[in-house]
Amino acid sequence: MKLIMSIVSSDDADQLVEALTQAGYRATTISTTGGFLRQGNATIFVGTEDENVDAVLQLVKETCCTRSEYVSPLPPVMEPGEMYIPTPVDVQMGGATVFVMDVVRFKRF
Ligand code: 2BA
Ligand code: 2BA
């Protein structure tokens, strides 16, 4: 068994969970925050048998399309008198960062 952890844009999360549940997979969503942009994203966990992993990854790929956006990262912690001029950076939004992990034990009580 594998645990598939997909970090996706909050905008794509509902659609992905819908696609997963319609295809018969079970999923859990938690609200998360990216370390770089410090904006909300969503992390979706799917526990499933090894042979389903590729199909789940395909659903993630189809649902979470990549788009490019200019955004300003949050300002760093400043000393008094220091000035911060925000420089927007071009980042790829959407898409998905996916980790597939081995499940040592799966229990339901
Ligand atoms: P964030 O950390 O908020 O990053 C958002 C996007 O900003 C990243 O998209 C990437 O395009 C850009 N970015 C991040 N760190 C950067 C840096 N040091 N310099 C320049 N650009 C940078 P993704 O790579 O698609 O990542 C989307 C979100 O997935 C991340 O949000 C983070 O929450 C998570 N993530 C990505 N890689 C991860 C990893 N190796 N471990 C844990 N979480 C990860
Ligand atoms: P939910 O997805 O909201 O599911 C609540 C309950 O609905 C489940 O209880 C199960 O009894 C039923 N259920 C869910 N999906 C089903 C399906 N495709 N067919 C038939 N019945 C279904 P639990 O199995 O005790 O799960 C409780 C919560 O644990 C789930 O909430 C979900 O958040 C998480 N979960 C369970 N199995 C998971 C898995 N394989 N991967 C990720 N999260 C899982």
Q: What does the overall shape look like?
A: elongated
Which structural class do the helices and strands define?
Answer: alpha+beta
Uncertain regions spanning at least 5 consecutive residues? none
Rg measurement, Å = 17 Å
Percent in helix:
10-25%
Characterize the largest beta sheet: strand count, sense, and whether it forms a barrel: 4 strands, antiparallel
Q: If you average the pLDDT, what whole number results?
A: 92
Distance between the termini: 18 Å
Count of distinct strands? 6
Strand and helix order: EHEEHEEE
Question: What is the subunit arrangement here?
Answer: single chain
| Strand coverage percent | 35-45%
Which kinds of small molecule does this entry bind, naming each only once? ligand 2BA
Number of helices, counting only DSSP H or I runs of 4 residues or more: 2
Strand order across the largest sheet: 2-3-1-6
Overview of the molecule:
The model has no long low-confidence stretch (mean pLDDT 92). It is elongated and about 55 Å long. 22% of the residues lie in helices and 39% in strands. The chain contains 2 helices and 6 strands; from the N terminus they run E-H-E-E-H-E-E-E. Strands 2-3-1-6 form a 4-stranded antiparallel sheet. The protein has a two-stranded antiparallel ribbon with strand order 4-5. A hairpin with a 6-residue loop joins strand 2 and strand 3. Bound molecules: ligand 2BA (2 copies). One ligand 2BA is lined by residues 24, 26-28, 45-47, 108.
